[in-house]
Specification:
Blueprint (H helix, E strand, L loop, with lengths): L1 H17 L1 H8 L5 H62 L6 H32 L6 H61 L9 H20 L1 H13 L6 H23 L1
Helix pairs in contact: 1-3, 3-4, 3-5, 4-5, 5-6, 5-7, 5-8
Protein name: Muscle-specific protein 300
Keywords: Coiled coil
Organism: Rotaria magnacalcarata
């Protein structure tokens, strides 16, 4: 409405100032035409200034509305992701450890996918932060942006911590799995087969001195090998204990069973 009124004033003043007939009419009324024209010029300048100010304010309103809409669009994308991520991280920290090597790899791969997702969301987060100073007059919106920024920072810290845990967890499971397979399916199995072959020998039928010496030599080598591989056994037992920090409850139960089985087989072998 003000814009329309001002435009009307400008139009009327322009006609009055430029139309000679109006000036002739005006000359017969005021005593001082010069002062009247000066006042009209002042009014015209004031009207132009007011109009320009209104134009600028309208532009600012449009820009402000645009920034608000832009910020809200970024928030609509970022806020649900933050909420889902907080839930994901809470669950991961509550359900610590892995069931086995495959589970450790799946957890690590899934978290790598999440970190890639976080990298993509970083663009939206940075855009929202850039908009923060443009909505300084929107206190509620600005507070929401600050809150999301705080939550984002916390997510980055916790997800980086989880990445470090998952990397260490996967390395630990990988090293353990490799050593377990080598010792259980290689060294221990070989020793058991050799011990079994010795036990099957009928000592009452050993009449040949060469066969007796060969058997004694086999026993001596087996004892030496067992003694030598005690280091590997002790290392594996230590890994059983160390791996508990990277094992889920079910994983710890399975580890304990495997631990007891290996321990029994090794002790049985030494008794033989």
């Amino acid at each position: 409405r003000i814009r329309i009124d001002v435009a009307g004033y400008l139009h009327a003043l322009s006609l009055l100032h430029s139309d000679g007939s109006n000036l002739e009419t005006l000359r017969s009324k005021p005593k001082d035409l010069r002062n009247t024209l000066a006042r009209l010029n002042q009014l015209r300048a004031l009207a132009e200034t007011t109009s320009n100010k209104i134009n600028r304010e309208e532009e600012q309103v449009v820009q402000s509305r645009t920034h608000v809409q832009t910020s809200q669009r970024y928030i609509q994308q970022l806020q649900p992701w933050i909420e889902q991520t907080e839930s994901y991280l809470n669950n991961r920290f509550e359900q610590a450890g892995a069931l086995n090597l495959n589970d450790a790899k799946q957890l690590l791969d899934r978290h790598k996918e999440f970190l890639e997702e976080r990298r993509r969301m970083l663009t939206i987060f940075n855009n929202l932060r850039d908009e923060e100073h443009t909505v300084a007059d929107q206190k509620e919106l600005q507070l929401l942006i600050k809150s999301l920024s705080t939550r984002w920072t916390n997510i980055v810290s916790r997800s980086d911590e989880l990445a470090s845990i998952y990397n260490a967890q996967y390395r630990a499971w990988g090293a353990f799995d490799s050593e377990l397979n080598a010792f259980r399916d290689g060294t221990l199995f070989d020793f058991e087969q050799r011990a079994h072959n010795i036990v099957l020998v009928d000592f009452n039928k050993l009449l040949d001195l060469n066969r007796i010496n060969s058997l004694l030599n086999d026993i001596r080598l087996l004892v030496e090998n067992i003694t030598h591989h005690s280091v590997n056994y002790n290392s594996l037992m230590k890994q059983f204990n160390d791996l508990k920090q990277y094992s889920s409850q079910e994983g710890q139960r399975i580890l304990n069973e495997e631990h007891l089985t290996i321990e029994k087989r090794w002790n049985d072998l030494n008794r033989l």
